[in-house]
Every structure is written in C-alpha cells, then in structure tokens.
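Quick one: structure for this chain?
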Amino acid sequence: MDSVNLEVLRACEQWIGAGHSVLLVTVVKTWGSSPRPEGSMLVVRDDGVVSGSVSGGCIEDDLIERVRRYGVVQTRPESMRYGISADEAHRFGLPCGGTIELVLEPMVDAEDAIGIAALRQRVEAGELVARTLHMESGRATLTAASATEGVIFDGKRFVTIHGPRYRMLVIGAGQLSRYLCQIATGLDYHMTVCDPREEYTDVWEVPGTTLVRTMPDDTVLDMRLDERSAVIALTHDPKLDDLALMEALKTPAFYVGALGSRRNNAARRERLREFDLSDAQLGRLHGPVGIYIGSRTPPEIAISILAEVTAAKNGVSLPTILQVEGAKAAREIAASAEPLCFA
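Got it. Here's what it folds into:
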C-alpha cells in the first residue's frame, strides 16, 4: 500500500475520533496522463485541512474549497470526474488532457472511525486487505485480498486493495542494509532481513522490517517468492549470499541482485553454475547490483540499488554498467578533442 495512503487512514481515524466530519476521496480510474495512480487517497477535514493526494494539487484545492464552503453534507458516497474537457483538464493540472474519476465518501460517525481503524490495523500488521464500499448504503466490509487484485468500481460497489503488494528479502543486516531497508519501507515494500550472524542481528533496529536468523536458502524457500518479490544479497560472504541466490534465481521473483565488483560477480556466476543453474537463470542475476550514479556512501549505494529495483518493477530497461562507462568515456573524449575545421 502507498505509504501516503496509510497516512490518510491514520488522519481519517484521528480526525473522526476528535469529532470532525471528513470526506475520504479515492482515485477510481484515470484516462490519459494522471499525477496519481488508481487507489490513491485524500482525506479532507471539515475545516479544509488535508492529508494525502489525488492529483498535482488543483483538484485538491477544488475539493478543499467545496468542503470549506458547504461542509461535509453528503449522506452517501458519490463519484465525480475531473478533466472531461481540455479546458477543465488544464484547469485542474491534468497533463495531456487527462481525466480522473474519484469516489467521494463522507465519514461522520463512530462507526466510520471503527471501520477505518480496523483497516489501518490490518494494513499495519502486514495484511493485504480488500475494502468493499457499498455505494447505496455507504457501509464498507473488509476481506482478505490477493496481490493481483486491483480497483473495481461498477457504480454499486467500490473495491480497493490495501496493504503491502511487494516483498523484498535482504540478505545481511549490515550498515548498507539499514539504509536500503529504511528507503524501501518508504517505497511500500514488506521487508524481511535474513542474517544468521549474531554479531549483526543483535544490534538490528530498523522499524518496519522483519528479522529472521535462519539460513538464507531456507528463508527463500519458506517465503515462497512470487513475481512481486525482490531479493538482494548484501553480505559479501559467498557462504550466505550464494545460498540465497541459488534458490532465488529459480523463483519468479522480478528482481534478484547481489553486491560486489564485476570481478566478484563473474566469480559468483561460476560458483552458481555448480548448483545446476541454467544460463537463463544466471542471466536474471543483477550484478553488480544497482545503477551507476557514482555512489560511494552506503545511503547513495542504497539509492542506486533501489533505483534499479524500481526500474525492474516498472518494466523499464536500463543500460548496463559497460554501456554507461562507455558513454561516459566517449563524452570525455569528445570534450577534450580539438574541433575539426573544414575551411
């Protein structure tokens, strides 16, 4: 679940509990370009205070003005579209003539607060939850969901999915892992850190992560990794990293990577061949892990790794390190060369 949406649930619960009425706004569908994806949420308090986002800001301003002027006067949920005309799209900051459909849900009583609290608690516990809003009655029900489900709206019921859709397994509980986990948690990954070494796990304190002390290959098997999973080996210890990689490369995980130089990764690939991994499976290994951004410190390296993971998650192809270095060398040569004269 988008961490911004979790903040929306917390704000919604707190504000209703404090006696405010609120308008919960959720993106149902978008056409063309849109600043925020389906399922994005915004809550507007009865005095115009907001949490969350559904657009680049102009739609929020319109909703705030609406609530400030009239209050939360709806008695049932309703849908609304912005950007149907080119003029309206421009007015509300929707690029390329985009259109966005929203569901506006009034929340005014203790029962609403209880329902939002139940959803927030299940999400914070790591569950994936489907919330079905019945448009006629305005009441919502919660059920277990799968990661492949998405937003559904047929005019009578509105189904949204909440909770962590992607998982990340990090091998090693060292300093780099700390920075990587902190950032990845903000990217809404359900984080598991595996390290059987007591000297590292005894001092591990990163909120939002699950620490396991089992052997990496057992951890990979126990997690039953799927196409919404990523594995990153960061220990520099072949006895640990290789165990995880030899099993992870056999799974549908969308990203499997390992820290190390090109020389170390070439040696790692040869070692992994001894575990009967095919060329296709070895070809899925990202190593050296991360994209080239000149990173040197642990936080910078964490950013480079997660940038590559994000690209893989979104189906974006990146140039290889050799291509990047080759392009850099070409630019340096071009910059230092004498200009040619054809006069």
